[in-house]
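The data are quoted verbatim for reference:
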Amino acid sequence: MTERKQADRARAQLARQIAAYSLALPVEELDGPTRGGADIAFARQVAMYLAHIAFEMSLARVGEAFGRDRSTAAHACHIVEDRRDDRAFDTLMDELEAALRALPPPETAIEACYASALAAPQRAGAGW
């Protein structure tokens, strides 16, 4: 698997997790190969939308990362966009997008962790 596909799948999983958490659903149900109930399908559509908007992934990449096709990802984005006419839902989506955009890219976070570990004084016998 290429690095880009691996990164896309990681982003898709993060979008699934935040969508499931925000909509009070088990994330495992969003990962299923079938559509699931209407609430599960909608949460998956929200996750696809977030991956497309917050991570700036193309619809083709979103579809692939979610194990679906481009047209499914496009349909998901249309469904979510239509729901954004509801002020409360629009606010929720704005907050979720902002939360995902605020995350550092994995490379930056990993580098920061290594730099921090190397700069920290080593304690003999500290037990951690």
Observations:
- Helices lie at 3-22, 27-30, 38-54, 59-65, 70-83, 87-102, 106-119.
- The longest helix spans residues 3-22.
- DSSP finds seven helices and no strands in the chain.
